Amino acid sequence: QVQLVESGGGLVQAGGSLRLSCAASGRTFSNYVMGWFRQPPGKEREFVEAITWSGGTTYYADSVKGRFTISRDNAKNTVDLQMNSLKPEDTAVYYCAACRGPPVFCTLPTKVDSWGQGTQVTVSS
């Protein structure tokens, strides 16, 4: 399995921006579809965005359309999530995910192969 470590979470006011980063190690990074999920307080983990092996295609949840952007750097083994125009409802623990198989697997929490430890994002109103 690939090991994942997230960074970049924190507290931000509504309308602000944060950039999350995930560093991978242990396996060939470019063999994995990568994704970001989040878990709001008291709710289930939900899909945010995913990106295919070469970065050619991305997938996103409707709730973050036009505000969040996923990107990856296969030379550095990193995947980032740029979050703009943040809202209080974006408050959650954000998790990096690595998935083998078709890209749709990285939109389903039950199909994720490796998880990071999570990083807290809090958006104040």
Class by alpha and beta content: mainly beta
Low-confidence stretches: none
* Oligomer class: single chain
What is the overall number of helices?
A: 0
Q: How many angstroms does the end-to-end distance come to?
A: 39 Å
Major β-sheet annotation? 7 strands, mixed
Walk me through the structure.
It contains no helices and 11 strands. Strands 2, 4, 5, 6, 9, 10 and 11 form a 7-stranded mixed β-sheet that branches. The protein has a 4-stranded antiparallel β-sheet with strand order 1-3-8-7, with no helix packed on it. The mean pLDDT is 96. The protein is globular. The protein is mainly beta and 125 residues long.
List the helices and strands and how they pair.
Blueprint (H helix, E strand, L loop, with lengths): L2 E5 L2 E4 L4 E8 L7 E7 L6 E6 L6 E3 L7 E6 L4 E6 L8 E8 L14 E2 L3 E6 L1
Parallel strand pairs: 2-11
Antiparallel strand pairs: 1-3, 3-8, 4-5, 4-9, 5-6, 7-8, 9-10, 9-11
Keywords:
125 residues, mainly beta, globular
Provide a quick synopsis of the model.
With 125 residues, the chain is mainly beta. Helices cover 0% and strands 49% of the residues.
